[in-house]
Write a structure and sequence with these properties.
Elements (H helix, E strand, L loop, with lengths): L1 E3 L5 E8 L3 H10 L3 E6 L2 H10 L4 E5 L7 H9 L6 E6 L8 H6 L4 E4 L5 H50 L8 H15 L4 H12 L10 H4 L7 H7 L2 H9 L9 H6 L20 H15 L11 H10 L7 H13 L1 H16 L1
Parallel strand pairs: 2-3, 2-4, 4-5, 5-6
Antiparallel strand pairs: 1-3
Helix pairs in contact: 6-7, 6-12, 6-14, 7-12
The protein binds fe (ii) ion (2 copies).
The site of one fe (ii) ion (FE2) has 5 residues, from loops.
C-alpha cells in the first residue's frame, strides 16, 4: 500500500518501509517537509526503488515477509549508494554490527513515540546526501572539463599527424596503415584490450616527429647524405618531445621514441636491443617497415608483396623481433585480401 504525501516539499525524496500503517502515517507527519512516501509492503517498495530515485530510506528491521536487512541485501544488488537508516522497535535487537557494515547501512535508531532521535539522524543523513550531490556535481564538471581538454589536445596532435602524412604523396595515410598492421599483430599475439588501444594510438602517432624535419630532406629524390640521414634519425626523439607535455600521451611515448630500434641493437635513437625494446614499439617496427617496403619512394619503386614478406623473414633476429614477424605473417595470410585492398587503395589515392 502506497501512502503518498502529495504536497511537494523540500528537494529530498524519502521513502519509509514499515509493515505497520500507523508508523508510516506518523513518519509522514514528522517528515512532512520532505517529499515523503511510505510503503507497508517491502516487495512493492523494492519494485519502486528499482525505477525511482530516493535520497534516503527509513526501513523497519522486523517485518514480514522480509526482514529489513534482507530488504537492504536486495537493494544493494542494484543501488549501492542509497542512504539507509534502519528502524528498530523498543525491545528489538539491532542486526549485528557486521551486517550493518556489510550492507552499508548508514545508521539505525529506535522507534519511539516522539521520533526525535530519528529526525536528527534523518537531518544529518540528508546533509551527507546533499554534500555527496555537490561532490558528484563537481566531479562531473571536472570530468567534462578534463575530457574536453584531452580531446582538444588530441585534436591538435591529430592535425600534426595528418600534416606529416600529407607532406608527400608517398607517405599519404602511412600512419593509418601502420596502425592497421600493428593492430593485426597485436590481435595475433593476444594483447590485452588496453594495450591494443595504446598500440593503435602509438602507431598512429609514431612519425609525428617528422613535422620537425625539413621537407627538403623528407622529400628529397635520391639518396640522402649522412648529415641528412642524421637529421631524419632525430624524428623519434622530436616526436616524443612533442607529445610529452600531455599526460594522456604518456603510454605511447615509448612507441614513438623507439620505433626505429633494431632487435640486434643497431637501431636508433637509443640502440636498445632485443626485449629491452618496448614490445609495442617492436610491433610498430614490423608494421612500419612493411608499409615502407610496399610504398613507392622517390628513390625506389615499391617492393612486391612477396619480396616485402621475404624481407621481413630475412630481418628476423637482426632488424625485427622474430616472434612478431611470425605473428605478422600469420595475420597477413589470414587477412590477405583486406591488406591487399588497403595497399592497392593507397595507390589510387596517391595518384588523385
Ligand atoms: Fe619513423
Ligand atoms: Fe613510419
Amino acid at each position: 500500500m502506497r501512502l503518498k504525501d502529495t504536497v511537494k516539499k523540500e528537494d529530498f525524496k524519502i521513502m519509509a518501509i514499515d509493515d505497520e500503517p500507523d508508523i508510516i502515517a506518523s513518519l509522514g507527519l514528522y517528515l512532512n517537509k520532505y517529499d515523503f512516501v511510505g510503503y507497508t509492503n517491502p516487495m512493492e517498495a523494492l519494485e519502486v526503488l528499482k525505477t525511482e530515485h530516493f535520497d534516503l530510506l527509513l526501513l523497519d528491521f522486523l517485518m514480514t515477509p522480509l526482514h529489513g536487512d534482507q530488504v537492504v541485501e536486495e537493494i544493494r544488488k542494484f543501488n549501492s549508494s542509497l542512504y539507509i537508516l534502519l528502524l528498530t522497535g523498543h525491545k528489538d535487537l539491532a542486526p549485528p554490527l557486521e551486517t550493518i557494515k556489510r550492507l552499508d547501512i548508514q545508521g539505525y535508531c529506535e522507534k519511539s513515540s516522539n521520533f526525535d532521535q530519528m529526525i536528527l539522524l534523518v537531518e544529518s543523513g540528508l546533509k551527507s546526501v546533499s554534500q555527496m550531490r555537490i561532490i558528484n556535481d563537481i566531479n562531473q564538471k571536472l570530468e567534462t572539463a578534463y575530457s574536453d581538454l584531452k580531446n582538444a589536445y588530441r585534436g591538435t596532435v591529430e592535425s600534426l599527424r595528418l600534416a606529416v602524412d600529407a607532406k608527400d604523396s608517398y607517405t599519404k595515410n602511412h600512419s593509418d596503415r601502420v596502425a592497421l598492421y600493428s593492430k593485426l599483430i597485436g590481435e595475433q599475439i593476444g594483447l590485452p584490450e588496453d594495450e591494443m588501444q595504446t598500440l593503435y594510438d602509438g602507431a598512429l602517432f609514431h612519425d609525428i616527429g617528422k613535422i620537425g624535419i625539413p621537407d627538403a630532406i623528407l622529400q628529397k629524390p635520391g639518396k640522402l647524405t649522412d648529415d641528412e640521414y642524421d637529421d631524419i634519425k632525430n624524428h623519434p626523439s622530436i616526436g616524443a618531445k612533442i607529445i610529452a607535455p600531455a599526460k594522456i600521451f604518456d603510454p605511447i611515448i615509448p612507441i614513438v621514441k623507439h620505433h626505429h630500434e633494431r632487435y640486434d641493437g643497431r637501431g636508433y635513437p637509443s640502440g636498445l636491443k632485443g626485449e629491452d625494446i618496448p614490445l609495442l614499439a617492436r610491433i610498430v617496427t614490423v608494421a612500419d617497415s612493411f608499409d615502407a617496403m610496399t610504398s613507392d619512394r622517390s628513390y625506389r619503386p615499391r617492393f612486391t608483396l612477396e619480396k616485402a614478406l621475404d624481407e621481413l623473414e630475412n630481418g628476423k633476429g637482426t632488424q625485427f623481433d622474430p616472434d612478431l614477424v611470425d605473428a605478422f605473417l600469420i595475420a597477413f595470410r589470414n587477412n590477405k585480401d583486406y591488406i591487399e585492398s588497403e595497399i592497392s587503395s593507397k595507390f589510387v589515392t596517391a595518384t588523385l
